[in-house]
TrEMBL record:
Residues spanning the membrane: 6-27, 69-88, 100-121
Membrane-topology descriptor: Multi-pass membrane protein
This protein's name: DUF423 domain-containing protein
PANTHER family, alphabetized: TRANSMEMBRANE PROTEIN 256
Family per similarity comment: Belongs to the UPF0382 family.
InterPro entries to which the protein is assigned, alphabetical: DUF423
A GO cellular component annotation in the UniProt record: plasma membrane
Pfam families per record: DUF423 (PF04241)
Amino acid sequence: MDKIALISGAFFGLTAVIFGAFGAHLLKKKLNTEQLQSFETGVKYQMYHAIVLLVLGFQLNHQTTLDNYIIYLFIIGSILFSFSIYGLVISSANNKKLKFLGPITPLGGLCFVLGWGLLIYKFI
């Protein structure tokens, strides 16, 4: 499980840098201020959780079910939250908004909240 956390963290970190540059340079001309802020929120949350996954990959005892749930929640949360925002923003900028992605974003946020909550529980 530590390899999954480390590889996912590194992948999310890599793609957050790429998407951040993509947003700052290429999308800046296509997006309005609100869309750009939403895109940047997706990048920030992806990077935050990339760093958390790297730390957890080195620190947690990956033999417990609780630790595995924490890692999976952060991975799933990153995918659902950040990537749905990217899809919503880019599709909206192209006047073809993928509305089905709207309800997915809060599910990703819920995964983040649950992951953080389980981490607090583990520490207590």
